[in-house]
Amino acid sequence: MTRIYDEDLAGGLATRAIHAGQRPDEVSGAIMTPLYLTSTYVQESIGVNKGYEYARGKNPTRQALERNVATLEGGRHGFAFSSGMGCLDSIMKLFRAGDHIVCAENVYGGTFRLFDRILRHLGLSFSYVDTSDPQRVAEAMTPATRALLVETPTNPLMRLTDLRAMSDIAKRHQALLIVDNTFATPVFQRPLELGADIVWHSTTKYINGHSDMIGGLAVVLEDDLADRLQFILNAAGAVPGPFDAWLALRGTKTLPLRMKQHDINGRAVANFLLGRLGEERVIYPGLAHHPHHELAKQQMSAFGGMMTLELGSIDNARRFLERVRVFSLAESLGGVESLTNHPYSMTHGSVPADVKQAMGLTDGMVRLSCGIEDTEDLIADLEQALEGL
Ligand SMILES: *Cc1c(COP(=O)(O)O)cnc(C)c1O
Fold first, then answer.
1. Where in the sequence is N6-(pyridoxal phosphate)lysine found (predicted)?
2. pTM beyond 0.90, yes or no
């Protein structure tokens, strides 16, 4: 477990992103956190060591990243994992057979797959509900419910969930509120401040931001919960290698700066597409017609670079995806480079067709992750790609 240093809470978000969790190296004064490539640590005597015994439990490079992201989320303890899914799988080990979890219905496809294809068979039960409606969430809670798990905005339908309302419901039932904050990042949304118990990320996406590693990270405020997560982290061992932690730590230094440009590009691209395709076909929480625009303005400090377009048919989607040049057709999101994908067959390929239909995910949809290239180049690329339809 990595508890943050109190002094890391000083300063604004950009300052903390660059400095929190990092101290000049004691040996040399190196300003950048060294890459600790070691599996074990020499001990002076039985039980006498510098707080490090074996690197599954703790690694100083990893700890710097954990402190850094915990600070950005306004939490006190961070836990880095080998992937977003490894992180969620470890979080779910807080529960035991017979426990019931209420989960948002349009979560990341891999989250649904982990629950439906693996954890369900281990005795956890799940109810999937539309968490944009707090009433439905309240109705889904049972005496066995131990957690409420949401993602906002959702992938790829960009629906929002009211985190304060979720926190009230979870508290009433003594359930943990677990929030996937991968899309918004702590720059635009801080779930712990709205009552969440655990915030987690696929650091593969915006936190690292350069599409060159896979990782996950969870942040909590409460000490008891942190002890339990540290136990799981060490016992189950889904930890990242130090180099991936180091890359993500380099990434967080520019997170606030990158998010600003993702948001500038997101807004400009959404407005351009609105003019081209009309309200029905552009799903972006920053547009006034979006059903959760008011909540987005309240709960998030900006809207970011993610959006989904309805192109009407899989043939149109295919033509569009084959024509883009600055945007690349690829899984993933949140990197400096612009990406686009086909959620129906890619991120949500493992979700059954009837479930996709129920959540409103069609095969004519394409998702955009607007990078931080020049705004005009992104718009020109989309313009030429749409001409082909
Ligand atoms: C990618 C992603 C995940 C899974 O993370 P990995 O690092 O790919 O394991 C979870 N949630 C969201 C919202 C994601 O985009």
1. 205
2. yes
